[in-house]
Amino acid sequence: MPSSRDKKRAAEETANRLRDAILRGVYPAGSDLPGERELSTRLGISRLTLRAALARLEAEGLVRPVHGSGNRVLDFQDTGGVELLGHLLAIANSGEEVRGRKDAGLTLLANLLELRRFAAVEAVGFAAERATPEEIATLRAHVEHQALLLSQPEAYVRADLHFARLLTRMTHNFALVLLANTIIRVLEAQPGVALTFFLDPPGTITVYRRMVDLIESHDAQAARAFTRRLIGAFDRGLLSRLATLTSVAPPPLPPSHDDALLESPHLVSQDAPLPKTTKEVP
Amino acid sequence: MPSSRDKKRAAEETANRLRDAILRGVYPAGSDLPGERELSTRLGISRLTLRAALARLEAEGLVRPVHGSGNRVLDFQDTGGVELLGHLLAIANSGEEVRGRKDAGLTLLANLLELRRFAAVEAVGFAAERATPEEIATLRAHVEHQALLLSQPEAYVRADLHFARLLTRMTHNFALVLLANTIIRVLEAQPGVALTFFLDPPGTITVYRRMVDLIESHDAQAARAFTRRLIGAFDRGLLSRLATLTSVAPPPLPPSHDDALLESPHLVSQDAPLPKTTKEVP
DNA sequence: TACCACTCACTGGTCATACCAGTTCTCGAG
DNA sequence: CTCGAGAACTGGTATGACCAGTGAGTGGTA
């Protein structure tokens, strides 16, 4: 059973392949990609299609073309955009390593949840301060709509993402809206990744209902506190359950995930601070 | 005096022109761009170059090509990514309207500052919890380096952005790192926009020094509180000064900016919530 | 008259080839 | 050994052709 649609545009497919290769470290940062002519023939596409794919990667901050020299591979830890998150998670969840780290999957998910958490806290807070009655009514209606989709995972995820969209709009902060757009777009493009977010849909709906109530009360303080507490507990539960699942599941993941992750998610990214990692003395 | 370098790649130049046109509403959301063949000849470039530009816009969520139909213009309020912020600010700052709103400039800046503010609060908090001594030393050294660049605006801005980069890394949250990368990349591409952020460099340096101290103390609570308070005051001052400047400066901006902006920045964006506005019976 | 299926003139997607414009490295002149 | 001219790369753009979806107009049918 093929995991993705086979009928995609060649350029997009090529972009995905190259992106994966770069994120997996096949083409190390600082090096040059093979020449466009060679690479295109190797991939079985025309140079033009290759260039379309490269344009995409350039926009994502993975590659910088240098006229006369080559397509330089950038260090995505320095220049990669948020839109990489979905791809990174997809790679990590497939049991692969990301730049030599096997525990990247859960760590990355913990990072993302942490970002989601405090972004949501602020969004709910601002919404409580600024949302109009019409917006609140719309959001409430949407939550009830979403509650009817519990049995349809894909539709449910879409609805959940739309909840985030609506909530973000209610902050009346356009920068936040654009930020949410970016993240939502990534998750929509990676349905599998988005699904891992939602192990407890009924609980989510309950939380959402209460959130709307708090927003309607215009008590930003309480709204923030509630969101922080509830989503925090939710994420903790989700991560611990996922850690259990993955340590039992077939993928080649050694039992190296303990709950320490939940307290202080780490992802070493020391290109500048700590160049050498040869010795590790616990 | 030309505002930008004339020697740029045609594709990039084209992408900028098209992006501006879309953001200004020349091509309304939902409509189709002119055919690629016509558009390319009209712009005086080859279709190939045009397509390279379109690929960029597609990655930014501004356009979705529909095979056999046309290049559909999307509503960037629904699908636009964060990378649009810089361009939007540039347009708004040039005195132009953005989608019919004249006060977009200051409002947008206020939005962005708000985002920056609470992101910084969390970043400093997490950094206080997780930063290593080496990272703290590096950051401290960088602040002193930045302090020497007060007389060189461009280098100073670059250094300031790098401060943000270093600080974000210290959170050990890769999602935050990528998010910062995206925003920093935008600001680096729009030097003029970035400059408006920094009307008081010496004050910034002072704040940064204290921030590093608080991070080193590993008192996340205090670090967050300080950051929230200081950056808040800083942003308020910056906005009020900018409001004064623009209401006096030559650009065709009517005196419609009052300090109410600072309290509750608004940007109406009701495309989805109210499909039909013909009848409204409460 | 109303409706449905087909056709064809669009659209974007891909390709092959050629040439321009930078960069890098080699190799010979000094 | 140093250095500079040029050859041999690299990416950037242009042209023209063809493939592949889309959608509206057309014609026929019920």
Largest sheet report of chain A: 2 strands, antiparallel
Q: Quickly name the level 1 CATH class of the largest domain in chain A.
A: Mainly Alpha
Radius of gyration of chain A: 21 Å
From N to C, what is the helix and strand string of chain A? HHHEEHHHHHHHHHH
Globally, the shape of chain A reads elongated
Low-confidence stretches of chain A: 1-7, 248-282
What would you give as the CATH superfamily of the largest domain in chain A?
A: GntR ligand-binding domain-like
How far the N terminus sits from the C terminus of chain A, by CA atoms, comes to 44 Å
Strand order of the largest sheet of chain A: 1-2
Structural class of chain A: mainly alpha
Please give the number of β-strands of chain A: 2
**For this entry, what is the oligomeric state of its chains?**
homodimer
Helical content band of chain A: 55-70%
DSSP strand content of chain A: under 5%
Count of individual helical segments of chain A? 13
